[in-house]
Amino acid sequence: VSIGGPRAAGGRIDVAWRGLPDVAALPLDGIDDLRTGIATLSAGFRGTLAPSDNPRVESAVPALLERVGRSVLVSRSGVILLTIQFAVLAGYAIVLVAGLLVERRRAEIALVRSRGASGLHLVAMALIESTYLAVPAAILAPWLALGVVTILGSVGPTAGLGIATSATVGSGAVIVSALAGVACVLALTLPTLFVSASPAGARAAEGRQARTTLAQRLGLDLALVAVAAVALWQLRLYGAPLTRNARGAFGLDPLLVAAPAIGLVGGAVLALRVVPRIAELGERLVVRGRGLVGSLGGRQLARRPLRYTRTALLLMLAAALGTLAAAHAATWSRSQADQAAYQAAADVRVVADDYSDLATWAAGPLYRSIPGVVAATPVAYAPIDVGRVVRAGRLIGLDPTATVVAATGATGPDGRERTALLDQLAANRPTTASVALAGSPVRMAVTIDADFRVDPDLRVDSDVGGAIPVDNRELHVSVLLADRDGRLLRAGSADGSITATGQRLVVALIEDTAQPLRPSGPLRLVGIEMTIVAPDNVAILGSVSIVSVETSEASTGDTAWTRVRLDPAGAGWRWDQLDQASRIEFPADPAAPYRVDVGREREIFGFPGSSGSSFRVFAGLSDEAILPAIASRRFLDQTSASVGETVAVDSLGRTLHVRLIAVADRFAPFDPDASFLITDLAALDALRLAATGATVQADEWWLAVDPVKSDGVLAELRQPASEARLVIGRDELTRTLSSDPVPLGLIGVLGLGSLAAMVFAGIGFLVSVTVSTSERLGEFALLRAIGLSVGQLALWLSIESIFLLVVGLIAGSLLGLLLAWLVLPFATLTQTGTAPVPAPIVLVPWEAIAPVYGVAVVLFVVSIWLVRRQLPDIRISGVLRARGG
User: Which residues are within 8 A (CB) of 268 and not within 5 positions of it... i.e. 6 or more apart?
Assistant: First the structure.
């Protein structure tokens, strides 16, 4: 906060305060209040200070708090979403238990009511019983939850976040636990009121069970499915349960938050309509056989479907949550890996320092010399503008044939699309002429004839005397080379006279031959540049020509020179004349291709501070060259261009002609919402050199590394000697993103919930089997009396158990997959920096879902064991005695 105070003797006094928020004391609910308070602080000062004061508040905290608040909303939405699903599961488990108890006690309750007990008495009895069960559970639940949170906060990625020590049982947890206890009491008490008051009615209810529920008869289940479809469609449309209100602020939409839970229930109750139809189909198939057991099992399933649909529904919910949990964990992990791969663009991505001290050629050899680096390729950038529609776009140069670039894309369709784009760029890349240099040269000798004289008609200073000094050293020669990456580099400089012939100027391609780093070979000669500086206040005329070019692999001595066959008149070569404000391009004279005549139309003027004129024989692209480029979708939208068109863009101080050969919706690591063009690196370097005369470091390097040595490579690249501003390792970034405690916590909660769902389903299934068997003891005793063995009865009940498990698990898995497809995109599609995540594929790791089916097998074995323990004692006399007959 800066405030301009009153004027003092020396002038106005400015006072500034700097404040730091107490983050430790900031509750989550206070984020919006703090952000609003900082935003309105300046207005508050103006209301309390003198009019002469001018308060100014500068803070980056509000923007940071806005991002934090949005993250909190996303996290809360995930927690609430999971909590609702678990509440649905737990609530239905209680309802199932209540229904089973009512079925079990139907005759007993009817008998008690027939002997004078009122409904109030029965409710009181059920209330006492349910309270005895619910109250201890409600008291222990918050503390059990605290224990689970403490354990989860002490191990794994969340161990260092202080969750274990900061977690407490708050008032909210107590209230939720109390409400859950009340709901449990009501669920266990109210069904007692709907039991028939007479024993005859109870027996009739047992003998003629309804084939459909009340909700199905009223069509409420279909209405629930319709609501679920609308909610999930909106969730899919908005992409997240966060919406903006009328003021533009983000908030949770209750319908969107509850959409997955509604979809879970809707899909399950819809499956209840399918279960009886499957049972009827099974009955038609088994009654055709000769076996009595199969016919009895199929008829039982078709005649009393509601007895099985309740248990099947619980199994469906458990299987759906288990499938959703496994798909969520796998898809989230894949999403984090995709994010890391997109941001890194390779195994390792090195962003060069803006003010690197490395020589132009040195970065590649330096990075390749690091143990563990398998391959490296440079990437260069240049700004582009297209009128007023594209401002601050980017022209990206890379080698489309580099294996590092080709391997950067994701596998699957994205990888194939990237490979196809690079193949198109490689097929259309412009070719430039060059001369390959044999061996590994460290020196180059250029023999030059220079014959210049002063133009007497343009001499301004009479003291010059119309002659150039004999000992002048105003001829400067440099060599332009291309390395193995296609990058251009300017090698050294040698000085000569502008009035001497046959002068042999030796240019050192490597300044320090003792150093281990050398330019990445093999090298190619792409140009020789000769700069001529005229004396001050005169103009000079004459000629300059290249007599010969030689290379040597020795750092000293005059032997072992190799002649370089340079042909300036060959295809792709030209001469350039460069002054401080202009560049003239002209072809070589066929009669004297190595010589440039400097007449009055090209004469060189000298003035104080002049850098002279340069004559360059160069194998570069002409001004009319057309660059092939892959365009981003955003670029096409902004320019209204289409693939195949040629577009004029402004870059590097000149107008470039770019032909759009393809469009890329995504191309790692570039933001698809930005306008960019991807072209050939060698062509971009040639245009940059022609436009600016400069060779610069690559903006980035993409490296392929040995996974075993990845950490060592990253440590080496982060040393000051590498001149790297940013180093991104794909594996390291994957580990960082995959250790985010918030989504990991959600995945952990979902995993624990799926385990709890399997426990609920297992208990419900076993209770259902046991109750169903005990209710039908009379039937079994009668069947035993007419000749059925215990094994046949066990087979009958096994058919029913298999039917329940198979239908419940298959329907639940399909429902879980559907929910995963609908819900997971908003849970895993995030954006980190400027690297959007590719659209996630809902992955289903069957090995993670296998425990659900393993539990089903265990349940089946246990249920058969329980049934067989009851069946051997079944006799008609025993059943009559047990029922008081």
Answer: 313, 316, 317, 320, 811, 812, 815
